[in-house]
Write a structure and sequence with these properties.
11 helices, about 0% strand
C-alpha cells in the first residue's frame, strides 16, 4: 500500500502506513522490508539521515539469501512438483545454477545441491550423467558431517531405484553405506 500511496504523491501517508506495519511486523523478513521501504520514502522526502538509518543496517539473512539460494529453492520446487504431478521437470538445470552460483564457505549446502543434481538427473532419465554426478556428490558428502546431508541421500536412493546398471548400482551401494553410517530421521 505504501508503494501506491507514494505513487499517488502522498509520502507522509506512506510513512504512516509503514509506521503501523513496523509495529505489527514480527518476522525478520517483514521487518527488513518495512525498514527498506521506509528508507526509500525518507529518501524521496530528501531526508538523508533517516533514509540511511533505515537502509544502513542489512539483516544477516539477506547476505545468506542470494541467487544461489534462489536457484536451489527453484530446483527443489521443480523436483517436488515433478514428483507430485508425475511429470518431468528440469530440476537439474536449477541445481546446476545453484552450484555455479554458490560462494565459498557453503560446503554443506553445496553437497546437498550436488546430491540434488544427481537425483534430478536420474529422475530425468539420465542415468549415466546422474551416476557421475552422484559419485562426486558422495565423495563430498563423506567429508561433511551433517544430518541434513545424510537425509538427502534418501532422495538419491529413491531416484536410483528404477535403474539396474553397474554405474547406478555402485551409486546405490555407496549412498546406502553412507546413509547407514549416519542414520537420520530428518525428512529430505
Amino acid at each position: 500500500m505504501s508503494h501506491q500511496v507514494i505513487y499517488l504523491g502522498h509520502p507522509q501517508d506512506a510513512l504512516g502506513l509503514l509506521g503501523v506495519a513496523a509495529k505489527k511486523a514480527t518476522l525478520p523478513a517483514t521487518k527488513a522490508l518495512v525498514a527498506s521501504q521506509t528508507g526509500r520514502v525518507h529518501a524521496a522526502l530528501g531526508d538523508e539521515q533517516r533514509a540511511e538509518r533505515h537502509l544502513g543496517a542489512v539483516p544477516a539473512w539477506v547476505d545468506y539469501f542470494d541467487a544461489a539460494e534462489h536457484a536451489g529453492a527453484r530446483a527443489v520446487s521443480a523436483r517436488d512438483l515433478a514428483a507430485f504431478h508425475g511429470e518431468r521437470r528440469p530440476a537439474s538445470v536449477y541445481f546446476t545454477d545453484a552450484l555455479r552460483l554458490r560462494r565459498p564457505g557453503f560446503d554443506r549446502v553445496k553437497v546437498m545441491d550436488r546430491i540434488g543434481l544427481a537425483a534430478a538427473l536420474l529422475a530425468e532419465d539420465e542415468p549415466e550423467q546422474g551416476a557421475a554426478a552422484a559419485h562426486q556428490a558422495l565423495d563430498e558428502a563423506a567429508r561433511v558431517d551433517s544430518t541434513l546431508v545424510a537425509s538427502r541421500l534418501n532422495t538419491l536412493l529413491d531416484a536410483a531405484r528404477p535403474y539396474r546398471t553397474g554405474a547406478v548400482d555402485e551409486v546405490r551401494t555407496r549412498a546406502a553405506d553412507l546413509a547407514a553410517a549416519r542414520p537420520t530421521t530428518v525428512a529430505a
